Amino acid sequence: MGSKHLVVEVEEAKIGEGEEEPVSPAGQYFNSSALYVSILAMFESDVPIDDSQMFPLLDTLLPINPRFSSIMLKNERGVQQWTRVNVNLADHVKVPVFPAGLSPPDYDKVVQDYVSKVGMDRLPESRPLWELHIIKYPTSHSEGTFMFKLHHALGDGYSLMSALFSCVKRADDPSLPLTFPGNSTTAKTVGSGGPGLVSLAINTVRDFAWGLAKSMFIKDSVSPIRSGMDGVELRPIEMSFLKFSVDDIRRVKARIGGLYMQSIGDGSKSTQATALVMLNTRFIHKSTQAIAPVKPKEMNKPDAEFPWGNRVGYLHLSIPSRDCRNKDDPLKFMSKVNRLMKRKKSSLGVFLTAQLLETMRRFRGPEVAARYIRSTLENTSMAISNLIGPNEKMLLADHPIRSFHFMVVGVPQSLRITIVSYMGKLKVAMGTEKGFIDAKLLTTCMEKAFARIYEAAIEEKP
Known about the structure:
Elements: E1 5-6, E2 21-22, H1 25-30, E3 38-45, H2 54-61, E4 70-74, E5 80-84, E6 87-88, E7 93-94, H3 104-120, E8 130-135, E9 144-151, H4 157-165, E10 168-170, H5 197-216, E11 237-245, H6 246-251, H7 259-263, E12 274-280, H8 296-299, E13 312-318, H9 331-345, H10 349-364, H11 366-378, E14 382-387, E15 394-396, E16 399-409, E17 415-422, E18 425-433, H12 439-459
Parallel strand pairs: 7-8, 12-14, 14-17
Antiparallel strand pairs: 1-6, 2-5, 3-9, 3-16, 4-5, 8-9, 10-15, 11-18, 12-13, 15-16, 17-18
Helix pairs in contact: 5-10, 5-11, 10-11
């Protein structure tokens, strides 16, 4: 692939002459001495990959937001800024070479090791913080894979996936826009789930205090899903996947987590495990919930309803485990988690946490706030995040996409779970600490747990 230089002009988000765009607080947290967090977005192709279409694809991607053609630099006052640079696209496109002639199952492991290594590597800070890896080898899942590595400082999953979705077309009719799962009912928002102001106040104080304690000094137990090792984010990860029907999920809103620990002999009631449920704060303060991504250039406007950037909050959710032992009534487990989530929704703890981080940043600097976020991650067992994908099959650079998923890398946790919908299916991706978590057993246990809950749900009388 030849070298190509491109200077991008962005109409909807112009930076004035002599001005630079300041790096957002969240962007500073995610690229600090305490945290270095990126997102891997994997698109699996139905056909062998022809990389001749990659530069036109990137020509479409780069103008979407100035950050794709900027680097992070400190000005004379020590403030981090996004500084526009010329982009040599060839520096950002990687085409790995693997041993030839292997079978698809053998390439599964080779690709897995490559993805793990890319996830651990740092992006060069001398050029914009993204890469495209073109894996031109067939696996059990695809004929080839496009993998985008995007630093979290560029934006959150909603921003970045909106950008990537704007670069794809519908496979059945490229002239038509992609459609996304809709939501015909009004969504309950954080702060609207309780019976009144008293409940809101009590739940807010409880959740904020508990989150503060968890972040500062209360750690989850060492367990089969949490090694508690220092520097766990630097250890290789193994990725495994499950797929569920969206229609099945709509019938049962299941939350899984306890069965795996019981399967390997750790079902103790005293074991404390907490999940961080990641939230898109663009939506939780609105009376209705936007489901489909908006056009990325609309997100760049100063008065955008859904602005570009990192608009992420989190809730601490204690993971029930003992209820899963009751094989006669697995819905008790789901009901318990459902009650917990309803109570969490009747709380403004996520907003108080955001204010705490902003106060830390202003008075003690972004590094202190980043260390607080790191402590929050280290003291919990897992993080869960999800995104909405299109209903129709996608074409990426004229390649029909069989499946896609994403994973957050660089976080100090042994287990990360991401969920994305595509063509009526939910794909659950699990990034597990290699050599510590048995990924195959975890996948099997999750499949069994969902099957038990689903069977109980469809058998239960209305």
